[in-house]
Design brief:
Layout (H helix, E strand, L loop, with lengths): L5 H19 L3 E2 L5 E2 L4 H10 L1 H17 L8 H13 L8 H9 L3 H29 L11 H30 L16
Antiparallel strand pairs: 1-2
Helix pairs in contact: 1-2, 1-3, 2-3, 2-5, 3-4, 4-6, 5-6, 6-7
Amino acid sequence: MRSKQIQPMIETSIMAALALILDLLPSIQLGPWISISFAMVPIFLLSFRWGFHYGVLSGLLWGLLQVVTGDAYFLHWLQFLIEYFVAFACVGFSGLFMNIIQKKFNEGQRYAGLGFVILAMFVGSFARYIWHYIAGIVFWGSYAPKGQPAWLYSLVVNGSAWLGSFLFCSLVLVFVLTASSRVLTANRNNWINIS
């Protein structure tokens, strides 16, 4: 492994573990199936620092850690793959905005940078929850209250969780980046060359 890949790989692992820890903390419960947390924040932050590929990998590791620690519940092997690997990996889609976010903050355009951060979080969290929504229709639809269509049940449950988590993560990251936007690029270019 080249030395330039060591720092992002270490951060990828650390942020996946941090996301798991945050996910295990008590969250805002709006019902038995609707949970709102800011556990995606580490994956978003990593994605803004290193981009799409590392964000997707970190999200994938987060899903794997949930399975390994026994925090996963599944009904079918396909639902298991969709909700714990595909959905969590999709949080890394926020990394598609890395270049524009870093450019805006480096140029001192903080408000524009924060705008792109929020847009990136919207894309990453929506990409994740669209998979939960689909799994909710296909696999969890039988849990819908009598007379309620599966699509509506999944929309209420997963839509509420998505919107709440997106807003919660937005508040946390706007606060963090307003306090110190250096976390987006700190030590990226100053890594010691050990080759």
